[in-house]
Amino acid sequence: VRTQVASQTWSGEGSPEALRVVLVWTRLPPRPYVFIVQKSYQDSETGPESSVITKVKGITFSEHKVWDVEEYVKPPEGGSVFSIITRIEVTPSQTLGTCPESMRVSDATCGSDEDCVAGQLDMLGNGLRTGRCVPYYQGSAKTCEVSGWCPVEDGASVSQFLGKMAPNFTILIKNSIQYPKFQFSKGNIEHRKDGYLKHCTFDEVSDLYCPIFKLGFIVEQAGENFTELAHTGGVIGVIINWDCDLDLSASKCNPKYSFRRLDPKHVPASSGYNFRFAKYYKTNGSTTRTLIKAYGIRIDVIVHGQAGKFSLIPTIINLATALTSIGVGSFLCDWILLTFMNKNKVYSHKKFDKIVDPPEQTAGPELCPPEPSRQDSTLTDPRGLARL
C-alpha cells in the first residue's frame, strides 16, 4: 500500500486564523484479483515429491565402428541426469612407462636436462618428471620426460564423430509426482494396454502422455544447432511443470514441458561439456587402457510445480483482508458502533465534529470595534507580554 499526503495552507483576508487542508489518499492493491485469479482461497503445496526414470534407444556409427546405447550413454543407470556422447578423442594402447610430457602443460618445454627437475609433479600434468629432456612426438620441439600412462593424450589422440544418427535417438522420460498434503499422485504416462508407447512420440496436443522425445527435437526446442552442440557439447534442461488445481478433476492436472540450454554458451570458459573415462584390458600380461575424452549432450530432467485446494482458513483470512482493503470493514464497524452500541452518541460525538458558521457582518462603518477575545490574545501573545 502506498500512501500519499499533500498539504496546502490558505489564508483569507481578515480571517482570524489560517485554514489548513490535508488531503490523504491511498492506492489499494487489487485484492479481488489476488483472491479470485491467484486463488488465495486455497491451501497450497510447492515442490512435489518426484521420481524420474529415463531410457535411451538408438544406434549410430563413427569412422571406425558402430555404437549402441551401452557405449554412448553415461552413466547407464537411467537417472534424471545422463549424457549422450556425440564426439570422442581416443588415445589407444596406453601403458605405464616413460614418455614426453604434453606441450599444453606449463613449463613442459625444455632445451636440456637442466630445465627438467627430477621428481617434480605437476598437478595439471600427466606424470612424475624423470629429469630428462626428450624429443616430442612430432616436430623438433622437446619436453620434459614423465613417468605415467604413455603416450599422453595430446600425443596420439584420434577424433571420432558419433552425431550423424544422434538426432534420431529416442529418450523415454518416465516421471511420477506426489503432493503428500493432499494425498494426490499422478504420472506422465497414459495407462493403456495396446502397446501405445511402442509406436508413439511426444506431441503436446495429440500425445501429451507419450513422454518419448527425439534428441533432435529436444535440442531444436532449446533453440540450439545440433551439429555445433554435438561437437562442443552442452547441457540441456528438460523442465516438467506440474501446476495443479485440485478443486478440479484429476484430468485437469497435466504436465507441461519446456526445454532450454543451461550452460552459458557465450562464455568460452564455461560453455560446452566433456569428460574422460578409460577402458582397461590385458596385453601380454601387462595392463593397457584406452583413454577417451568424450564430448556430449547432457540432459538434466528438472521437475517442479505447485498444487492448491480449497481451505476454509486461508479463505477467511484473505476475504477479511480484501474487505478491509476496500473500506467495507471500517464501514461495518462504524455501522455497528453507531447503531447497536449503548454509547453510540459518545462515539458519534468523537467521530464527527460539528461546524458552526460565524455570524455575518453588516455593511457600513463599525461604531464600536469588538473587543478581542481572551482566546485570540492568548493565541497572538502566548506568554502574556502585552500585559507587562
Automatic annotation (TrEMBL):
Disulphide-bonded residues: 99-150, 110-133, 116-144, 200-210, 244-253
Enumerate the GO terms in the molecular function aspect: ATP binding; extracellularly ATP-gated monoatomic cation channel activity; identical protein binding; purinergic nucleotide receptor activity
Segments for region (Disordered): 359-388
- Positions bearing carbohydrate: 168
Question: Which parts of the chain span the membrane according to its record?
Answer: 319-341
**Localization of this protein:** Cell membrane; Membrane
Membrane-protein topology:
Multi-pass membrane protein
Q: Name one GO biological process term.
A: calcium ion transmembrane transport
Q: Which reaction does it catalyse?
A: Ca(2+)(in) = Ca(2+)(out)
Give residues annotated as binding ATP: 55-57, 170, 274-276, 293
- Alphabetical list of Pfam families matching this protein: P2X_receptor (PF00864)
Main function: Receptor for ATP that acts as a ligand-gated ion channel. ATP-gated nonselective transmembrane cation channel permeable to potassium, sodium and calcium. Activation by extracellular ATP induces a variety of cellular responses, such as excitatory postsynaptic responses in sensory neurons, neuromuscular junctions (NMJ) formation, hearing, perception of taste and peristalsis. In the inner ear, regulates sound transduction and auditory neurotransmission, outer hair cell electromotility, inner ear gap junctions, and K(+) recycling. Mediates synaptic transmission between neurons and from neurons to smooth muscle.
The record's similarity note reads: Belongs to the P2X receptor family.
Listed PANTHER family: P2X PURINOCEPTOR, P2X PURINOCEPTOR 2
- Provide the protein name: P2X purinoceptor
User: What is the organism of origin for this protein?
Assistant: Ailuropoda melanoleuca (Giant panda)
Q: What is the lineage of its organism?
A: Eukaryota, Metazoa, Chordata, Craniata, Vertebrata
